[in-house]
Amino acid sequence: MSAGVGVDLENLWIRFGDFVAVRDANVNINGGDFFSFLGPSGCGKTTILRAVSGFLDPSEGRVLIGGNDMQGIGPNKRPTALIFQNLALFPLMKVWENITFSMEINGANAKERRKRADELLDMIALPGQGDKLPSELSGGQRQRVAIARALCAEPDVLLLDEPLSALDLKLRQHMRTELREIQQRVGITFIYITHDQGEALTMSDNIAVMRAGVIDQIADGKTIYNDPNTAFAASFVGENNVFRGKIKQVMGSEALIETNRSGDLVARISTANQGKMKVGDDAMMFIRPEALAIAPDGATGDHFVTARVNHEEFEGNVFNIFTEGEGGKEIKVSIPNHGQSFQDHTGQNITLEYETQNAVLVPAGELAAE
Amino acid sequence: MNNSFLRVSIWVYLAIFFLYLLGPLVIMSVTAFNSSAFPRMTPWECLTFQWFGELFQDQRILNGIKNSLIIGAGTVVLSVAMGLAGALMLTQIWPKLRATYYTVIIAPILIPGVVLGISTLVFWDRINRMLGLGADSFLSNGIFLTVIGQSTFIASYCMLVLVARLQRYDIALTEAALDLGASHAQAFRKILLPFMRPAIASAAVLAFLASFENYNTTTFTFGEYPTLTIELAQKVRYGITPSISALAFIIVALTVFFALLNEAKLKRQELVAAARKNATVEELAGKIKLPSFFSGNMAAVLVVVFAVATITVIGTATAYNPAQCIADVREQKQLEAQQRIDELRKQREEQRRLREEERKQRFEGVFEPGDLQPGTTEEEAEPDTGTNNSGFGNVFAPNTLGGDAEEGEPEPETPPAGNGGFGGAFDPNSLQSDD
Hints:
Shape of chain B: extended
Number of domains of chain B: 2
Mean pLDDT of chain A: 86
Largest interface: A-B, 31 and 23 residues
Structural class of chain A: alpha+beta
Strand content of chain B: under 5%
Strand order of the largest sheet of chain A: 6-7-8-3-9-10
Strand content of chain A: 25-35%
Largest sheet of chain B: none
Order of helices and strands of chain A: EEEHEEEHHHHEHEHEEHHEEEEEEEEEE
CATH class of the largest domain in chain B: Mainly Alpha
CATH superfamily of the largest domain in chain A: P-loop containing nucleotide triphosphate hydrolases
Mean pLDDT of chain B: 79
Number of helices of chain A: 9
Structural class of chain B: mainly alpha
Oligomer: heterodimer
Shape of chain A: elongated
Radius of gyration of chain B: 35 Å
Low-confidence stretches of chain B: 375-391, 400-428, 430-435
């Protein structure tokens, strides 16, 4: 794979009046990476994208593309191409004219443009559709035309602002794979903005989790899922059961916490927080629904939780059990379906167990809104 | 039953509404073809095209049309440019200032045209003097002043039209163009301007029509270049002729024609879009087979019918000679006039005879025959209202009025003394009697 052009954000601050949209962001994006900014709406991820593409000037700090400071360089002079959330295809131009707009700017003649458009149309699997108008295409086709238009400008960095959010579920899943394929084929850096953790996890080499202008964690998908830095990252990415409490005892990379309602439980301190958490600190323990299992009755210890089953549902790949622990604490358990017999527990008291490495401990903090 | 009553009343309402809207235009158009020297529909005299001929020989009207076209073109260019600038500014300005800015830029529409005309004149005259230019400088030129004066408020109309379109513009399109390497000028020219084109066309038509029909402002600024409306207004002051109807008819016909043409074009675009939608990829790449021009396009058919009708009418007009008809009508008119004169004469003779008899009777009964001499006694003049010798004579008697109306017509009989239009007012005797 080609090395590609990397993007670096150094101490980037962006303010609108008194409002701080981005707070001291430091990100190194390697050339050729598929990099995602993941966060809820209003967290500043689009602002970062606009700063990279040149529509916004940072209040402080620098944006570097390929090691060059982009200060004072307009969007039309940067080696970036942006795919807008609403795609912004030019409604009065035919598809081929749309795709080769950047060539028209550079003074290419119609014949060259047509040839290049046909190549790109083949690449995005829309052969021969060049003479249509954007309004005559379906949502997914328009999506691909927008990508082709951006690629035609031969950017070093492709920026995508939630381009799949307007599509329906099936198409979205299909386009995920397609985007990833295109990225691997052209080998340029993709910076992808999304609030959908599924999109971020499936496509990205690396993900930055953002919350209210602050980047909580930058890591690959697996790390973010299994080893979150903060309570926000743990609760935003995927489903998680949270147990609040105070640290009672620290044992190397593990700790015993006194939870508010479920007794003393043992957990693994997340990698980034090891050595930083002390006895008496407020902490949060996160256990994924699929990391819980039903233990034999009567088992007790620091990795068992007792709960009463409220209701159950069958989701296809998993059985979901919604339980209520001590003091009304809600705990969700997902048991993978591999054809085993499954008895109804509704109304019963059960004991749940987990493995210590699947319970992640982070300092107490803000959770993602449901 | 109730329902049908409702339906009928809707139709009646529509009929009245359209009669009110279009009635004057129809009547005026018809008068353009009547040979009567005063524009009227009844009595119908002869079908004639002479008023069109007269119209096109009227140098002042032709000159007015020429000036109107020049000023209209100037106003379109200036107003659309200023309107577009104003509209763009409205989208760019700080939101806090937007309402104020909008009010300021809309204000010229609310200011009376007369005020705009006077102020334009005063303002540019001031500048002209400050620059020390003479009375024949460019700044005091009628065309320049009229274009400037009209544009002050027509630009606001244009802005309203353009803003409506601009509000539907997605600023992301400009950003996309910039992002793809276009400069701001290129993004404006290649993306925004094509998007605005329909609105610019509407604004241009609106500006031209507003300029063409403007009177209030122009009346102060036209200088040596009177526009058509100014010429018409001046003409109407000296009496209205059917050649003005002819001009009105031409304007109505042109309006209808262009409205139909526009409709046909829109319908055409719709049909093409529909055809494209159903076309396969191959058809789109190659030559797309479009439906023929007239199929499903009523307006296009009407345009052609209209054009054919116009050509036919013009053809007929050149071949048609209403001289015979006009001569007939004139002859008939003369006959009628002669008849009326004869009738009146008869009537008058009858009346005189009656009066004479009456007088005779009265004089016989009341006075001595010697009293017949007018002005001999003082008491006689006042009570004797029946005679012709009072101060006003019998000016207001019905038959004398009839006599006045026939002034200028050959009057073979000489009126009897004291019985003329002024009665005996200037009779030296009656003057004496007043003493």
